[in-house]
Design goal:
This protein is an alpha+beta fold. Helix content is about 35%, strand content about 30%. Helix 1 packs antiparallel against helix 2.
């Protein structure tokens, strides 16, 4: 078991990037135009504006490449970039390890609007991280949310 005063540090992409094809952007565009057309048919301009902004946002987010973030697990909490997650504000953790597809740490926060935080482990040893975190948090299987599942289907 790791010493409580030691830290584990690494850098990894902020999220798993999946290359989008031209077809992906065409599908987003066609879906957006369809929603806007339905908004015009139903004479609901607010819906049309929302569909246009939503479609544009999805395409923009889909093209975004992940930044490299520094992670640090220490005796006070988990540092993600410049944001600190204190252990007292966290409930549990789970390491989703299914190589080569999945290698991520999921922490469950007590916050309502951001209950789960995914951290890419890249080349870090999941067993070492697990042993270290067991000193501070409970290990609990955390299932992917419906939103995360939908985003995976949409290749985000």
């Amino acid at each position: 078991m790791e010493n409580k005063s030691e830290t584990i540090e690494w850098s990894a992409p902020e999220f798993e990037y999946r290359e989008k094809t031209v077809d992906w952007f065409w599908i987003v565009g066609i879906a957006t135009v369809t929603l806007i057309a339905l908004a015009v048919i139903f004479k609901n301009m607010l819906w049309g504006i929302l569909a246009a902004v939503g479609g544009f946002s999805i395409a923009l987010y889909g093209a975004k490449k992940p930044a490299t973030v520094k992670f640090k697990i220490g005796p006070k909490g988990i540092l993600v970039g410049d944001r600190m997650f204190d252990y007292e504000n966290l409930e549990s953790f789970w390491i989703n390890y299914d190589p080569p597809q999945k290698k991520e740490l999921i922490i469950k926060s007590q916050k309502t609007f951001m209950p789960h935080v995914k951290i890419m482990l890249k080349n870090e040893d999941p067993e070492k991280i697990r042993d270290y975190l067991l000193q501070f948090l409970d290990e609990e299987k955390i299932e992917e949310s419906l939103t995360a599942t939908i985003m995976e289907i949409m290749r985000f």
